């Protein structure tokens, strides 16, 4: 540990690890982008990286250091003993070498900025390491989040035979034009995905409406009105929120089987709100508590009764919260899979998630499944990105649930 | 001066408020008890009954009528069946109205009578699996056409009644389900898998969320975009991401394997979701991946609400960045971390969809919740499924006791 | 038209008694102010009058009618909240007209009344704004406007100025005084700021832990506090209190001298306001002391005097005083300015 | 009128063909048929669930393993099925498939089509190494020795995914090959320890020559297509894609997904033998139309008759390579359907008759297998019990434990015997 | 040992200049107070000295050493925050010892220093409590204690008392004064409360929008404000300002009379503090007016006088005054109490 308190130790150590991280990142990115073979070379990364780290801590002008490191990395890359081993065309080889050289030069100098060559103060050492961890963190999280979605979208646009040939080759043949979207087209034409989407949509919207209709009065009462059992009540909301769906699904399945509600969209619309009402109650209750009681009291003094206060004052004020709750509930209903899977058998009544599940079940080509996944994902994503503020608020307010 | 005591009872304003509260809550209470409390009670009831999927259909007599044959061999056939293979149906009676256009042309089956156009039978008890035909030879009345007669005869639905004991509602109880569940050594492996999955899934998501939150706890351009991006795994439908993972980690045609092979990390394709104990690790990793955004969001919210003054004070006090994290941020986050841990623990414990979609509970990834499904549907033993569900519910109650003990100290979420 | 009467009013929160039996007569048109230390029950009492809190025991009468069991809407009162409690989703006009609208008044009438109130409060050009686009003082005025429009039996104010900054507070105080003059309605006003209480009130009710300590005009409270609590509560810097003993017609201070005493009964404490103390050469007056600190404030100086066992006293002198910290001085208490209190804190007079 | 028809042939192209046939039926009779695809692995659960809920469809297209259990559970209307067979002429059906579904006084369901399971192997590699075709345990083990060379080439791709029907099928084939059956004429019978041990050891050998992890038909095919497996066990459904006729499952042994090169290098065995049963056995599966007890019987019967008569060629054309006709012809034209079948083109994205792709000898081997194909309990009249045993997946689980090394052979036999005897 | 020197210090937030070039010398042991209206940059300046904000231009020297580029920890200063910024999860002891712990001091040394600071601040019996179990004043003392422990070159205080209630504020103010006396360290103190500024400071720096309006002792600022801004900022109620015109040695008020003028140059405004105005019979003095409101405050009365076109003036008189609202009176401004300002607001003298 104490050795790290010297610039000439910390610098090379960070440099070595960092170059390896970069080489891996670029290899993976290039592999996914071109399908060609790239792989990081551990030994070369460590040695070169250590050298780069050492250069970065020598007392020199910043641009000089960047230039030195970049030139160095680039030169070694060209000899073929660089941090990335590739079997690829000369152009992309050159491109990768330049990319790696520039990124490495710039980033290692940025990470080791203000790190002196000699002994480091605790602050200086920790800050360098924190900058390193930050860079690593961004790469790491972005990669783990993006890769699956990238694979999902690209798979849906490729044909299975291409992917079986080379599972890494996600490059698209744009000459195909609209044929790229063949699996989407087939999903809508042959698999009724249009209907499923519509079913999912109106089921989700109805779920939102029913949920609000039940949870607004309930949440208001729990949050604002004094009555015996209020505390117990707000706890049992949380408790209900914790009952696992699969435990309820079984008796619901039985009851629906016996009453003939199984395999009907009505049944789904009846049952979805049950999963969302506790969430909505919980979220709205929190929000109502946060509204200043004086405004409502002002309404009371102004001659309203409680119900009028709720309708004319509380609800308009709670509009952003209602939006958050609605969005969140919409998302839950749209993404719901378990109940749809258990209760719906008839393909003409499927929701979107149930329809996607169907795609998994036979020898249906994989791009269809992924296209289905994309179709199910895009609407929530659009909603989410468009209304991110509400959504995040909704998430933080109500949902430790998953 | 006499000691003042509080007045008894509630004042008129309070009473009015309470009345309003209850009437606002009534729909919610009704709904919740209908679809949460009742099912929970039902689960308890069923878990003590020897009941399979097929038993959900209450035993009953089933009757179908048709006019068969032609010319002289014309007959009305009643097919009578006991829907159950193991329960008898008693006091079975049939009533049907015949059209005028048919005339009985032979003996009525025993137990049957014809009064005018009303045909009635008393058939007593039907054995389990009873499936026989009652044939009544008939002739066409003058001028009657066979097709119209057939339509007329089959157009009036015959009535059939009978009594049977339904296993769903009778008072026969058994501990078999629990015995079965606890007996198999399978149960303990399921339990162990559940615990592994829950503990590591929760802790992993928390740690990853903490790391991500620390990363984004400073404002820079693009911070909003990254925050949105990091929430994707949680927001996307589970079905989409689960299948994507299955594809990505497919042993023979998945990109992950291809990548690993190419990088020389492994020389042989790895069957990520089909190999013990890797499959369990993978579903746990998936759980972490999918739910780190939630922890991240909550921790970030908490981080941002920490008074920056405190950090400035620490700056003045000469604390280094790691010291600030260790001595200030971490203790400040302890509350939210423990609340998150408890809640996420409960939710991970309850998780079903993810594992079901990824491995279907195979390759050593069967958790308690997946077991409910397996027992109830794959093996068609609803009673055993219910028993597992009751066990889950029991665990849940224990957790929630912890939770409420704790949350009453930490302010709620 | 606006008289309010409290009869043995009590308030319990569970087992805790917050208002301990209060009787009070408020006459039509009076400006009554509740003051008292934080937590003494001022707001609770006001909210009970308004109907926002249940009255646990006792009765509230407005113009003779018992309204104890009636909801706020039926009491004909109006309230201005500390946080203003404007409806954030409505324009100023709608905020002010809201009560009339809910009562079903015709649009024309609402307009007339709102415009009138707006002109009284000089809010005409803000009528179409939302509350969030107004400054603190303007919001305060809208809140008052909302009350005026209803033409209420009485106005209730709960610390209406405490969210404003000092300069604005002075200005709004002045405007409320003007408003009371022009409307002549009954007003009940809660504050913990004694400057507000002294300058605005016709009648001040000093509350001490749910009980009335004294009711009276500002001058009465300042000049003839009924007990030690009121004496120390009113006036800033607060009245100096020194233990004393009395015998016959003279009092004496331990370690000091003494003076004349006219009270009936025994007094154990002597009170003297900082502005009434006279500083003279050492050995003169009733008491000797050392100057601890001289706090220069411009117009005045507060001189903090260390009297040994008798504690620290504060005297207020002109800003141009030549007194220096460390000096030894004598203190004299003009007889007609001294207040005596008995062991229970009641004024002896 | 509307009837509902559940089918396990749920690929869109196959579904479309069935819908076409339904439309023809509607045109002919005025009865509408809703064709509802059901995933084969869900079929058992869903049928039971539908029975419980009282909303069974009218007709179910199902594999052999459900015929007798469902008849017993009261799901199938055996009389209606028998009546249909009678109406079409019992003599027009191949006798084997009828016998497999026989119940008192008729059949449980109407047999539609069938196939035999095959050992698909790399004839070229066998030839190179001078190996004999894998017709017996010994031949297979000998081939493993020479050809197993991971990761370039796995000797075998065994089925090890316990909950897949595929594993049950493969195992039953291997057990049958060695003459082992869990039933006899009296019902459940203990497995013969010696013969079973041979089976287990053989299975362990092929499992060890397989890639790690849980494997089923998907991996088998992918590996074989990639040229990385010397032998697999598969159904004839593989024949079209093996010849590069299907884009969603192309051979990847070379760069041309449409090439039939792999087909030309492939050999096939249907009859397989173990040391204790030198005659060996083929394993066949037959699919049936079941008419349910909740059905509108007359309409359902009409539909089944139609599908087996006017619509039969259409039915077979769904996937001729895996649907051999069990009804050979009509009373008037005894070989009408066999002939029609042999002309049907196979393939999805490209089409060609089987004869163009494979040797006639090979085709004969494949088709001929159906006549001699065996299943547990058929000869003994215990198919119902045997099906339940299979459906309970006991054998799969225990075999899996054995190949994972959790128990030894003796314990495995004991465990199977114990658990199988609990099935009834 | 604790001298601080600012040289042309500027602060820019993006394009906005918040501190506009400030030069200031603070001597060792001095108690310097920054006052000014809200948003004028007091806190920013203090934080720049402490190193919590980057200095955009100019230099800061502590004991002659240029520390402009150094992080806070290296400047040897300490800061007491308005919100106290105590570490809520640590005991009082740990809070006070934290800086030593991060620096790696041995436990015994930490204990000694913490105990010493606790005894100075009378916190001994609270050492094991958490901040949330302390009253506001105690928290404030812990925050100060945390600073004392470090033995800093100088103390920085950012409105340390503004979260306390009035009574406590008076008390803590007194304690800070005592602390300064006993430690003798340099202290820089930000407040917007002028009573604090007047009573505590050796030297007051009045800031006006990022610039220094005047630096001086409290008495200087009160008696000789350098400009209108300072004149109106210091003193409560604030100085009355009336437009006037001057000619030679006399000034005149429009609509009023006038008086002597000694200034050099022209003055356009005349300032007079409320306590210096004299009220006389109508027609006497410099100006006539009508009494608008008399606000009784006990010891004093504020008389608000309506002078027509010249606006409203406030006068402070004794509480026993007999003045009544509506009375017409004359106002006289004693010549030596008048302040004159030119068109730019600069004092003319
Ligand atoms: N809903 C309640 N439940 C329990 N106690 C309450 C409630 N509301 C107020 N109290 C208590 O009643 C007492 C009086 O509160 P009230 O708000 O009337 O004081 P106040 O005089 O207005 O104080 P402040 O000047 O701080 O506003 C306080 O001790 C308070 O804690
Ligand atoms: N981080 C920042 N970014 C942009 N502007 C800022 C920032 N911090 C402060 N300011 C601006 O700088 C000016 C001075 O702020 P500062 O906090 O120093 O005022 P202050 O005199 O302390 O006021 P107060 O008495 O209200 O505390 C204000 O106009 C403020 O809006
Ligand atoms: Mg209050
Ligand atoms: Mg500030």
Explain this structure to me?
The complex is a heteropentamer, with 1 copy of chain A (402 residues), 1 copy of chain B (413 residues), 2 copies of chain C (349 residues) and 1 copy of chain D (424 residues). Chain B is of the alpha+beta class. Chain B has 2 domains: 59-163, Immunoglobulin-like (Sandwich); 184-380, MetI-like (MetI-like fold, Orthogonal Bundle), CATH 1.10.3720. Chain B has helices spanning 12-47, 146-155, 176-183, 185-216, 223-235, 238-248, 255-263, 278-305, 308-317, 321-350, 353-358, 368-378, 382-407, and strands spanning 61-68, 75-82, 89-97, 102-104, 112-115, 118-126, 131-140, 159-164. In chain B, strands 1-2-7-4 form a 4-stranded antiparallel beta sheet. A 4-stranded antiparallel beta sheet of chain B has the order 5-6-3-8, with no helix packed on it. In chain B, strand 5 (112-115) and strand 6 (118-126) form a beta hairpin. In chain B, helix 3 crosses helix 13 and helix 4 (185-216) packs antiparallel against helix 10. By secondary structure, chain C is α+β, with helices and mostly antiparallel strands. Chain C has 8 helices and 22 strands. Chain C has helices at residues 42-50, 92-102, 107-120, 136-150, 166-183, 194-200, 218-223, 228-233, and strands at residues 4-13, 16-26, 31-35, 57-62, 65-66, 77-80, 154-158, 186-190, 203-208, 211-216, 240-243, 245-247, 250-252, 258-260, 269-272, 278-280, 287-296, 300-306, 312-318, 328-332, 339-341, 347-348. Chain C has a 6-stranded mixed beta sheet, with helices on both faces. Chain C is elongated. In chain D, 46% of the residues lie in helices and 17% in strands. Chain D contains 20 helices and 18 strands. In chain D, the strands form 6 sheets. In chain D, strands 2-1-3-15-6-16 form a 6-stranded mixed beta sheet. In chain D, strands 8-11-7-12 form a 4-stranded mixed beta sheet, with helices on both faces. Chain D starts with a strand and ends with a helix. Chains in contact: A-B, A-C, A-D, B-C, B-D, B-E, C-E. At the A-B interface, helix 1, strand 1, helix 5, helix 8 and helix 9 of A face helix 1, helix 4, helix 5, helix 6 and helix 7 of B. Bound molecules: adenosine-5'-triphosphate (2 copies) and magnesium ion (MG) (2 copies). Residues 13, 18, 36, 38-44, 192 of chain C line the site of one adenosine-5'-triphosphate (ATP). One adenosine-5'-triphosphate (ATP) binds next to helix 1 of chain E.
């Amino acid at each position: 540990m104490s050795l790290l308190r010297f610039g000439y130790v910390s610098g090379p150590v960070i440099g070595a690890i960092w170059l390896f991280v970069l080489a891996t990142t670029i290899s993976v990115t290039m592999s996914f982008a071109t399908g060609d073979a790239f792989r990081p070379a551990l030994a070369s990364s460590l040695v070169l990286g250590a050298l780069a780290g050492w250069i970065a801590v020598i007392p020199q002008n910043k641009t000089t250091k960047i230039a030195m490191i970049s030139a160095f990395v680039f030169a070694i890359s060209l000899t073929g003993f660089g941090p990335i081993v590739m079997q690829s065309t000369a152009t992309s080889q050159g491109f990768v070498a330049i990319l790696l050289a520039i990124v490495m030069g710039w980033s290692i100098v940025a990470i080791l900025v203000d790190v002196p060559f000699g002994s480091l103060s605790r602050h200086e050492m920790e800050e360098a390491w924190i900058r390193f961890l930050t860079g690593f963190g961004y790469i790491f999280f972005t990669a783990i989040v993006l890769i699956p979605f990238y694979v999902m979208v690209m798979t849906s646009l490729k044909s299975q035979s291409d992917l079986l040939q080379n599972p890494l080759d996600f490059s698209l043949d744009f000459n195909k034009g609209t044929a790229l979207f063949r699996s989407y087209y087939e999903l809508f034409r042959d698999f009724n995905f249009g209907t499923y989407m519509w079913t999912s949509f109106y089921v989700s919207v109805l779920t939102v409406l029913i949920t609000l209709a039940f949870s607004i009065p309930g949440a208001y009462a729990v949050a604002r009105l004094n009555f015996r059992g209020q505390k117990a009540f707000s706890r049992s909301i949380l408790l209900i929120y914790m009952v696992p769906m699969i435990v309820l699904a079984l008796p619901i399945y039985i009851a629906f089987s016996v009453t003939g509600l199984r395999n009907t969209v009505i049944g789904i619309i009846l049952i979805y709100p049950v999963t969302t009402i506790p969430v909505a109650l919980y979220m709205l209750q929190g929000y109502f508590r946060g509204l200043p009681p004086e405004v409502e009291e002002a309404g009371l003094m102004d001659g309203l009764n409680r119900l009028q206060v709720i309708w004319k004052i509380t609800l308009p004020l709670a509009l952003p919260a209602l939006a958050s709750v609605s969005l969140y509930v919409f998302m839950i209903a749209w993404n719901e899979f378990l109940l749809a899977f258990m209760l719906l058998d008839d393909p003409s009544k499927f929701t979107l998630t149930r329809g996607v599940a169907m795609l998994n079940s036979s020898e249906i080509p994989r791009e269809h499944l992924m296209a289905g996944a994309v179709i199910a994902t895009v609407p929530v994503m659009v909603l989410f990105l468009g209304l991110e503020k509400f959504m995040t608020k909704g998430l933080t307010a109500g949902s430790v649930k998953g | 001066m006499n000691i003042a005591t509080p007045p008894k009872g509630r004042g008129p304003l309070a009473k009015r408020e309470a009345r309003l509260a209850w009437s606002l809550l009534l729909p919610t209470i009704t709904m919740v008890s209908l679809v949460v409390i009742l099912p929970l009670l039902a689960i308890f009831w069923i878990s003590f009954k020897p009941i399979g999927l097929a038993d959900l259909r209450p035993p009953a007599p089933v009757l179908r009528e048709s006019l068969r044959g032609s010319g002289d061999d014309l007959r009305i056939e009643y097919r009578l069946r006991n829907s159950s293979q193991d329960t008898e149906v008693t006091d079975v009676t049939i009533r049907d109205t015949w059209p005028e256009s048919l005339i009985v042309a032979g003996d009525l089956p025993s137990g049957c009578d014809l009064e005018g156009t009303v045909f009635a039978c008393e058939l007593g008890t039907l054995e389990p699996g009873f499936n026989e035909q009652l044939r009544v030879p008939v002739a066409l009345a003058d001028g009657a056409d066979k097709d119209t007669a057939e339509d007329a005869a089959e157009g009036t639905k015959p009535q059939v009644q009978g009594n049977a004991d339904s296993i769903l509602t009778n008072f026969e109880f058994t501990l078999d389900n629990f015995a079965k569940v606890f007996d198999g050594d399978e149960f303990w492996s399921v339990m162990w898998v559940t615990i592994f999955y829950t503990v590591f899934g929760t802790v992993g998501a928390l740690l990853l969320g903490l790391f991500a939150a620390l990363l984004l706890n400073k404002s820079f351009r693009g911070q909003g975009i990254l925050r949105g991006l990091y929430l994707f795994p949680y927001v996307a439908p589970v079905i989409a991401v689960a299948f994507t993972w299955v594809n990505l980690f497919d042993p023979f045609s998945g990109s992950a394997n291809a990548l690993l092979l190419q990088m020389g990390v492994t020389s042989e394709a790895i069957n990520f979701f089909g190999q013990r104990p890797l499959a369990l690790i993978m579903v746990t990793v998936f759980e972490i991946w999918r739910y780190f955004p939630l922890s991240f969001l909550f921790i970030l919210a908490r981080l941002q609400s920490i008074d920056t003054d405190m950090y400035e004070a620490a700056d003045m006090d000469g604390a280094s960045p790691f010291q600030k994290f260790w001595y200030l941020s971490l203790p400040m986050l302890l509350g939210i971390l423990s609340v998150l841990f408890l809640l996420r623990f409960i939710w991970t414990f309850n998780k079903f969809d993810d594992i079901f979609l990824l491995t279907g509970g195979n390759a050593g990834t069967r958790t308690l919740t997946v077991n409910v499904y397996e027992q109830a549907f794959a093996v068609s033993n609803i009673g055993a499924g219910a028993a597992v569900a009751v066990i889950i519910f029991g665990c849940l109650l224990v957790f929630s006791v912890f939770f409420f003990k704790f949350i009453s100290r930490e302010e709620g979420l | 038209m606006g008289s309010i009467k409290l009869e043995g009013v009590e308030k319990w929160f569970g087992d805790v008694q917050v208002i301990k039996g209060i009787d009070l007569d408020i006459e039509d048109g009076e400006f009554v102010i509740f003051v008292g230390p934080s937590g003494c029950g001022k707001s609770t009492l006001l909210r009970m009058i308004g109907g926002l809190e249940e009255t646990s025991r006792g009765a509230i009468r407005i113009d003779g009618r018992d309204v104890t069991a009636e909801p706020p809407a039926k009491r004909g009162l109006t309230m201005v909240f500390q946080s203003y409690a404007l409806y954030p989703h409505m324009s100023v006009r709608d905020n002010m007209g809201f009560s009339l609208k809910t009562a079903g008044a015709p649009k024309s009438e609402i307009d007339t009344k709102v415009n009138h109130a707006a002109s009284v409060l000089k809010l005409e050009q803000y009528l179409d704004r939302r509350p969030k686009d107004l400054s603190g003082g303007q919001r305060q005025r809208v809140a008052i406007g909302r009350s005026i429009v209803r033409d209420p039996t009485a106005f209730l104010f709960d610390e209406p100025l405490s969210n404003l900054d000092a300069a604005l507070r002075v200005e709004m105080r002045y405007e409320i005084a003007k408003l009371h003059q022009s409307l002549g309605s009954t007003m009940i006003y809660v504050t913990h700021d004694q400057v507000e209480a002294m300058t605005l009130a016709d009648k001040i009710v000093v509350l001490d832990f749910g009980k009335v300590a004294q009711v009276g005009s500002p001058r009465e409270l300042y000049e003839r506090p009924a007990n030690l609590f009121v004496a120390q509560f009113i006036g800033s810097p607060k009245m100096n209190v020194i233990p004393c003993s009395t015998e016959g017609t003279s009092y004496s201070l331990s370690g000091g001298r003494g003076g004349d005493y006219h009270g009936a009964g025994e007094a154990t404490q002597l009170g003297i306001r900082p502005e009434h103390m006279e500083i003279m050469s050492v050995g003169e007056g009733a008491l000797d002391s050392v100057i601890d600190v001289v706090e220069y404030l411009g117009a005045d100086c507060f001189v903090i005097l260390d009297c040994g066992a008798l504690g620290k006293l504060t005297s207020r002198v002109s800003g141009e005083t030549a007194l220096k910290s460390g000096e030894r001085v004598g203190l004299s208490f003009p007889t007609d300015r001294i207040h005596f209190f008995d062991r229970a804190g009641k004024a002896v007079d | 009128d509307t009837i509902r028809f559940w089918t396990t042939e749920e690929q869109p192209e196959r579904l479309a063909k069935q819908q076409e046939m339904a439309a023809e039926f509607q045109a002919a009779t005025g009865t509408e048929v809703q064709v509802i695809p059901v995933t084969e692995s869900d079929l058992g659960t869903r049928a039971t669930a539908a029975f419980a809920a009282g909303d069974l469809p009218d007709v179910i297209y199902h594999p052999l393993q459900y015929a007798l259990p469902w008849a017993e559970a009261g799901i199938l209307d055996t009389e209606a099925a028998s009546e249909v067979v009678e109406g079409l002429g019992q003599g027009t059906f191949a006798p084997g498939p009828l016998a497999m579904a026989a119940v008192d006084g008729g059949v449980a369901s109407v047999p539609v089509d069938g196939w035999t399971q095959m050992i698909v192997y790399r004839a070229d590699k066998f030839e190179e190494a001078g190996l004999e075709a894998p017709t017996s345990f010994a031949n297979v083990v000998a081939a493993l020795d020479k050809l197993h060379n991971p990761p370039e080439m796995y000797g075998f791709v065994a089925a090890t995914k316990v909950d897949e029907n595929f594993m049950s099928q493969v195992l039953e084939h291997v057990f049958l090959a060695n003459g082992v059956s869990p039933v006899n004429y009296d019902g459940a019978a203990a497995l013969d320890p010696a013969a079973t041990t041979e089976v287990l050891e053989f299975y362990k050998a092929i499992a060890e020559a397989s890639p790690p992890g849980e494997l089923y038909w998907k991996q088998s095919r992918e590996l074989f297509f990639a040229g990385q497996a010397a032998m697999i066990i598969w159904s004839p459904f593989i024949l079209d894609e093996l010849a590069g006729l299907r884009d969603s499952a192309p051979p990847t042994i070379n760069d041309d997904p449409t090439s039939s090169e792999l087909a030309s290098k492939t050999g096939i065995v249907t009859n397989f033998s173990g040391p204790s049963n030198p005659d060996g056995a083929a394993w066949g599966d037959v699919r049936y139309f079941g008419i349910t007890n909740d059905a509108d019987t007359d309409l359902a019967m009409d539909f089944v008759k139609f599908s087996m008569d006017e619509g039969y060629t259409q039915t077979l054309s769904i996937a001729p390579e895996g649907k051999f006709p069990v009804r050979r012809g009509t009373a008037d034209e005894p070989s009408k359907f066999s002939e029609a079948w042999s002309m049907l083109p196979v393939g999805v994205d490209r089409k060609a008759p089987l004869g163009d792709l494979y040797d006639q000898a090979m085709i004969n081997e494949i088709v001929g297998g159906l006549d001699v194909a065996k299943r547990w309990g058929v000869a003994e009249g215990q198919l119902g019990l045997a099906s339940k045993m299979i459906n309970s997946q006991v054998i799969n689980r225990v075999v899996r434990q054995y190949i994972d090394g959790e128990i030894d052979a003796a314990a495995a036999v004991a465990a199977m015997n114990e658990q199988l005897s609990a099935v009834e």
